[in-house]
Amino acid sequence: MNGELISLEKPLLEKTTRNTPYIPRHHRRILCIFPKYSRSFGTFHHAYPLRGNVRAFMPPQGILVVASYFPKEWEVRFIDENVRSAKRADFIWADVVIVSGMHIQRPQMNQINELAHREGKITVVGGPSVSGCPEYYPEFDILQLGELGDATDQMIEYLDLHSNRPQKQIRFETKERLPLNEFPIPAYHLLNFDQYFLGNIQFSSGCPYHCEFCDIPALYGNNPRLKTPEQVLAELDAMLEYGNPGAVYFVDDNFVGNRRALMQLLPHLIDWQKRNGYPIQFACEATLNLAQSPKLLEMMREAYFCTVFCGIETPETEALQAISKTHNLSMPILEAVKVLNSYGMEVVSGIIIGFDTDTPETADKILEFIHLSQIPMLTINLLHALPKTALWSRLEQAGRLVSDENRESNIEFLMPYEQVVEMWRRCVTTAYEPEFLYQRYAYNMEHTYPNRIEVPNSPARASWANIKKGLTIMSNLLLRVGLLGNYRKTFWNMALPALKAGKIEQLIHVGLVGHHLIKFTTECAKKEESASFYSQKIRNTVHT
């Protein structure tokens, strides 16, 4: 039986937190399914073949926490459809099918519901999408709205006492959230970490800011809630027990949302890294004003944070003011990027096109910013209005929301729609033209990566598994890109100096990530990829 089908009755590392307090009377089989993502910039799918066994980007934290919260007496299976599709045999095995996901996964979630109902199974949907828009899921038997908490216990009790589908839809809505410091360790034992591009972990939930396009405050609040440092370390230990992803991304809405709490966490992370031989590098998502906190930056450097995603969104001051992102203006953006680079952190930037303040010159300004900032990777995305955001409310009131599955966005832009889409396409194809991309990576190889701490050549880092992983990536890079790639000359101009200097780890990083960016851009130029992570365009998902 493979790792996806192990029962939660299998002993796990001793937990610092708890399962549901509900004691069940009946045995239940719970099938947790995470739906497949539609391909996009952020799925990194073009890099998977270079990694060997990788099939998905990151494990889904939310549904794994719920899987771990169920009564220990119940059998729980987990399927990530980004790794493999759920089959009829999986549905037949289950008493209950539980699904979670984001708005972009809505068609896939509803399809899973239909397949489960064909086998007469009770279906439950939870997570951010249904919590924001319950009306998106009219056919599910049970909706669990809100975060883990009293509604989850009520849902578990209902599933214990009922074995047949309800006659009409039932809703359980969380009134009392389970504190983050009581969250169970996600069910990592149900994963094969070798199948994921990155590992991930959550320290806090919520963000103190009010960016117009963001739904985080409505879903999770403005006052970040926190796990304890001990919880974070226990989750890292559990991760290493079941595999080493090599890199772990803190999926917090804003990693620096509570700086005092972060100051307390970082010494624990530093100590954990030292005790374990620095087995992984960390990445996170933070506001750009992190650059004004040198004490935090120094500790993050020592904890081996190598990448930070910042929602820069646009270099245009007027636009940042209009979308309530003035915290990006607390110091010059280019200066902030250079500060982060000086602590060894490669900056990844969010960029959005389609703001009301955009002009025909916006694309030129974005491309100039990319050149001046030397940021290699930017998630250049078309603006899309999400429900429960200030942007949605404003545009709805103005009659500027569009429901058209053939469009890249649900917004009636102030500029002509086709012009905005072409601005996006020009920015993407120019930013990821191989020579321009590798030029920016060359800058970071010279001015950013050398600022990282020297990590020890420990047994955890020099394990046979890591060596094998590195050899696999290198051989695939040399074959698929160096020999067969259509940008192989550009690749070798970057690779040969790196090889001569012994910068193997940097070469692997640049070659791996750069390959996805270049291949994805080729598809964008052919109009084969979406301009928005949240595009309404119809996508088909096939179940077998």
Automatic annotation (TrEMBL):
<protein>
    <submittedName>
        <fullName>B12-binding domain-containing radical SAM protein</fullName>
    </submittedName>
</protein>
<keyword id="KW-0949">S-adenosyl-L-methionine</keyword>
<dbReference type="GO" id="GO:0046872">
    <property type="term" value="F:metal ion binding"/>
</dbReference>
<dbReference type="GO" id="GO:0003824">
    <property type="term" value="F:catalytic activity"/>
</dbReference>
<dbReference type="InterPro" id="IPR034530">
    <property type="entry name" value="HpnP-like"/>
</dbReference>
<dbReference type="InterPro" id="IPR006638">
    <property type="entry name" value="Elp3/MiaA/NifB-like_rSAM"/>
</dbReference>
<dbReference type="InterPro" id="IPR025274">
    <property type="entry name" value="DUF4070"/>
</dbReference>
<dbReference type="InterPro" id="IPR034466">
    <property type="entry name" value="Methyltransferase_Class_B"/>
</dbReference>
<dbReference type="GO" id="GO:0005829">
    <property type="term" value="C:cytosol"/>
</dbReference>
<dbReference type="InterPro" id="IPR058240">
    <property type="entry name" value="rSAM_sf"/>
</dbReference>
<dbReference type="InterPro" id="IPR006158">
    <property type="entry name" value="Cobalamin-bd"/>
</dbReference>
<keyword id="KW-0408">Iron</keyword>
<dbReference type="Pfam" id="PF02310">
    <property type="entry name" value="B12-binding"/>
</dbReference>
<dbReference type="GO" id="GO:0031419">
    <property type="term" value="F:cobalamin binding"/>
</dbReference>
<dbReference type="InterPro" id="IPR007197">
    <property type="entry name" value="rSAM"/>
</dbReference>
<dbReference type="InterPro" id="IPR023404">
    <property type="entry name" value="rSAM_horseshoe"/>
</dbReference>
<keyword id="KW-0479">Metal-binding</keyword>
<keyword id="KW-0411">Iron-sulfur</keyword>
<feature type="domain" description="Radical SAM core">
    <location>
        <begin position="193"/>
        <end position="426"/>
    </location>
</feature>
<dbReference type="InterPro" id="IPR051198">
    <property type="entry name" value="BchE-like"/>
</dbReference>
<dbReference type="Pfam" id="PF04055">
    <property type="entry name" value="Radical_SAM"/>
</dbReference>
<dbReference type="GO" id="GO:0051539">
    <property type="term" value="F:4 iron, 4 sulfur cluster binding"/>
</dbReference>
<dbReference type="Pfam" id="PF13282">
    <property type="entry name" value="DUF4070"/>
</dbReference>
